[in-house]
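To close the section, here is one more complete example, presented without commentary so you can practise reading it yourself. The ligand is NAP.
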Amino acid sequence: MPHNIAIIGAGPAGFYSADALMKALPECRIDFIERLPTPFGLIRGGVAPDHQTTKRVTQKYEKTAMMDQVNFYGNVEIGRDVSLMELRKMYDAVVLAIGAPSDKKLTIPGADKIGVHGSAAFVGWYNGHPDFRDLEPNLNTSTAVVVGNGNVAVDVARVLLRSARGMAEADLPNHVAEVIHAAPIIDVHLVGRRGPADAKFTNVELREMGNLNMSSPHVKADQMPDDFDAVLAHYEGRDHRLRRRNLETLVEFSTSSNKSKPKSVHFEFFASPVEILGGDRVEAIRFERTIIECGKIINTGEFFDIDCGLVIPSIGYRSEPIEGAPFDEKWGSIPNDNGRIDSGLYAVGWIKRGSCGVISSNRPDGVIVAEYIAEDIIPDPKKMGRNDLEGILKDRYLRWIGYSDWKKLEAMEIAAANGSAPREKFVTVEEMIAALDEAPVNEQCVQ
Ligand code: NAP
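Output:
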């Protein structure tokens, strides 16, 4: 009797879990249940459009998706189409791999003004995520401020500054490329509340900011530490080495005399946002100078403003609660014991541990959850997995997108690509369904 396992969410954490589960339990049947018609989660909707090499990891995920024992049910949303409680009655184990799709909110006065877009929304928009198709940010400004010093902040700054030529091989959707490349933005301020040694961006991403055709990086020499060892004292091992490299890169930026490019990214450290100023629309953002003592941020009472027409808080993501599972509102994630939530219910990826780590950080989560499931699972002959699921979806006249349907959509996206772009994405669920309706009917789908 096979073990029936459902993985909710077909992003990296889901795929690494499926891979590990097939090794730990070779007889298992795995069903991905994904609310979008498309697989790959943040690889498609979060990784920057000009980081196509990173996106190639989907080739590995595809091998998993094509295994006989793996099915993909796209366009099926837990809570809307089928409940978690129902799934737990159909499957021997359910793995939540639903990520952290929402913005951690910047809770300062004025954060709700027009022209303030959290990075989850803004990145989703420029990546053609259906949830953000209608964001329509107004980029008609010379100056944008990105709050935060993580990799997402660097991605956002780069995408705003890169030329159309620099983005030629990216999968920026046409309607987004038109807006970004017509925008008069020439200055992007990347502002961190801590110092350069504490910035969370990785060195490859930082160095990229020094290699843009149209933009020069600016770092204030007086914000750079004289003594690297002192500011890196509480970092160890790899972390210490990577942060030292960041400091070296930032010093290069601060001393470089080549500032002749027409656009600029300004690195500003030791500045905590306190208020967004303006009328209905953002006109400026106010910061308070900070100092860092024993790892703590101390406000100094000294303030300064940056005039701008766009603010992108890139301060991390949070998960959304799912009915039938516990949720910690404060941390924006599901309380769990290293991935175990409840009998037969598990968590992996950002819903398990918050929005930290790179793509490969999801791999160990998958290995751990597979070990736990292999230990815990007691196959129940009444739980029929996909047979039960398809029955319910058909009874409810719900249309799901199988993996072969996704492959048709993918082929259409590749065929629609302009020039050297890899694809022109479908950006709404409706247009994906309409496109499939014109393609040969998939026997698995209920019309
Ligand atoms: P992140 O790395 O956690 O960075 C968040 C930044 O926001 C930090 O600088 C943080 O400062 C700051 N912040 C948080 N709350 C703030 C507040 N209230 N006011 C001002 N600043 C605030 O998050 P992320 O950039 O969203 O990235 C999420 C994860 O995805 C990270 O692990 C990242 O490495 C990964 N990622 C990787 C890549 C890549 O590998 N190319 C690309 C994108 C994302 P503090 O340090 O003071 O908290």
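Once you have examined the tokens, check your reading against these statements. DSSP finds 16 helices and 16 strands in the chain. The pocket of NAP is lined by residues 106, 147-153, 155, 192-194, 198, 200, 202, 205, 272-273, 314-317, 355-358 (CB under 6 Å).
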